[in-house]
Amino acid sequence: MIDSLQRQLRDHPRTVDAAMAVALFACSFPGSMITLPGRPPGPAWWPGVLLAGVSCAALLWRRDHPRTTVALTTACAVAITALGYIVTVLLLGALLVALYSLAGRAGRRTANTCTLAVIALLAGTALIGGPTEEPLVLKLVGPAAWLLLPTSLGTVGRIHAAYLDAVRARAEHAERTREEETRHRVTEERVHIARELHDVVAHHLVLAHLQAGAAARAIRTRPDEAERIVGELAGSTSSAIRELKAVVGLLRQADDPERPPEPAPGLDRLPGLASSFRGAGLTVTVVTEGPPAPLSPGADLTAYRIVQEALTNVTKHAATDAAEVRLAYGRDRLDITVADDGGTAAPAAAPPVPASAPPPGGGYGLIGMRERALAAGGRLRAGHRPGGGFDVVVELPLHR
Fold first, then answer.
1. Residue partners of 278: CB distance under 8 A and separation at least 6
2. Which CATH number among 3.30.565.10, 2.40.50.140, 3.40.50.720, 2.60.120.260 corresponds to the domain 268-400?
3. Whole-number Å distance between alpha carbons of 311 and 325
4. What phi-psi label fits residue 48: left (phi over 0), alpha (psi between -120 and 50 degrees) or beta?
5. Where in the chain is the domain with CATH 3.30.565.10?
6. How would you classify the pairing of strands 322-329 and 379-384?
7. Would you call 29 exposed, middle or buried from its count of C-beta atoms within 10 A (0-12, 13-18, 19+)?
8. Alpha helices, DSSP H only, in the chain?
9. pLDDT by position in tens, the chain (length 400)
10. Three-state secondary structure string covering 128-177
């Protein structure tokens, strides 16, 4: 009920101003007939009512022209005081409302200056043209107190409105920031899942493709060898299914009743990863330098995925049957090198391949490896070796 009434008042400001002007004009009738006890009657009532009516009519423009409204109401109040009326709040009602509107819309200095000027005019006029028998307190203190009140209230209201606007602006900014942060996190998660899917699918499908081709070639002449390769093919596909389930588990909701996905792979699975390439005809040698140090879970997964993708690229693009993975543990970092000899000597002047460029034939292998290294706080370099072949060098920080 109250909210509906406030909404109606906000939607019809002119009606509110007109009703207020009529009410203040009605108050001017008794105000113009006030006299001091035991004193003869003052001036006739109608000039004061007429001036008060003009002052009240000026309130219709108080929202758009507050300074002009203050000037008109001040002139009427000074004229009423000069005619010898007892200056009370009943005759100053329009001027009080005008000063309140000015304080609410103009700056504090402007409102205070106008108020002090109006007080000086009214006090000076009351001393010169007011009733001689009127006490000095009524001439000076009363009008000054009444005029200071609306200015103070208007200033407080303006400061409060500015505070509410600032709070609303901060809330809107925080909401926009929160939405942008949410979109940023969603984008990061999508890129993360895309990298995981690329690494898993590319690695296992390449192995499965090579193993299936080798089994097809050996099935007639070397059935035992073909049987072994088919068994390794089944192991590759089973591993692919497990890792795909783990990646898809990233999309699960918190209230999913199913079992959580298995832990992410790390360098502890490097021997199994190296042996999985034997069926594809690639012998992987793992060399460790320095005492192994633990990595953070994110860096451990990053190291594993980079080695996996680098070996998969060797299988896809290098005419070689051997690759080396070297892990060099330092005091505060881990250097990983995945290298192959290329099978045939590469030109010594071959330009290096940027880490952000896809391998020949297109793809996102090197792009994904570089993004992983940067996300873990490290860096990646990839390029042709002077003596032939290709290597991928990664530096990852150690989090002890």
1. 232, 284
2. 3.30.565.10
3. 9
4. alpha
5. 268-400
6. unpaired
7. middle
8. 2-11, 13-32, 45-57, 66-82, 89-105, 108-129, 136-218, 223-248, 270-276, 297-317, 365-375
9. 677 766 776 778 888 889 999 999 999 899 888 887 766 777 888 898 999 999 999 999 998 899 999 999 999 999 998 888 888 889 999 999 999 999 988 888 999 999 999 999 998 888 887 777 777 777 788 888 889 999 999 999 999 989 999 999 999 888 888 888 888 888 877 777 777 776 666 666 777 777 777 777 777 787 777 777 777 777 767 776 767 766 666 565 445 555 555 567 788 888 888 888 877 778 889 999 988 888 888 888 888 889 988 888 888 887 788 899 999 998 888 999 999 887 643 333 333 434 334 444 345 678 888 888 888 888 999 888 887 888 899 999 886 5
10. HHCCCCCCHHHHHHHHHHHHHHHHHHHHHHHHHHHHHHHHHHHHHHHHHH
What interhelical angle do 45-57 and 89-105 show, nearest 10?
A: 20
Return the number of other C-beta atoms located less than 10 Å from residue 186's C-beta: 10
Structure tokens at 143: 């009008």
User: Facing residues of 333 across strands?
Assistant: 397
Closest Cα partner for 33 from 15, 5, 52?
52
